[in-house]
Amino acid sequence: MIDPRTRMVYNVLERAVLKMKFKIAMIIFLLSIGILASLLIPRLVTGDNVSKIESLHAEIDRHIDGPYNCLETACRELLQLQPYNCQAWAQLGKSLHLQGKDREAIEAIEKAILLDKTGKDQVVQEARIQQAMAYIRIGDKDKGKKIIQDLKNRMEVFDKHNTPIVFGMLAWVEEKMLK
Prior knowledge:
Layout: H1 4-40, H2 47-62, H3 68-81, H4 86-98, H5 102-115, H6 122-137, H7 141-153, H8 163-177
């Protein structure tokens, strides 16, 4: 049998150890939340970044029709500030494809597709045409055909003013690249 004083000391120590374990567990939990947050939550747009982001959007608009290496640079800089921007990933994919960097283009457009929560972002869907052409150029005609067919089946996602242009682009890819 244990002496009552010893039992009391033992109980106090046991509670102290439990409190210490709880504090350590809380510290670990809070650290893991902080690490997760830094990985999953996009960087906050601070006052310093707002003007930089706006200027990068203007830079992308300015180089949308070339030179494509400048468009690539602007997209990469924007993605440093906004890594979850599906349109920036799509534009990066387009620029890479137009420079002949087809494998990189496919990866960038895949990221854009994953980030497009609605599956209806016009820029992302248009980039899928470049993705189809990139697959065809690297020799995977089946994937290219599948993307083209999927886009044809989903013409409603395109702005009604762009639908004829997109349809024409898809027909061109089928006629010129898949024969």
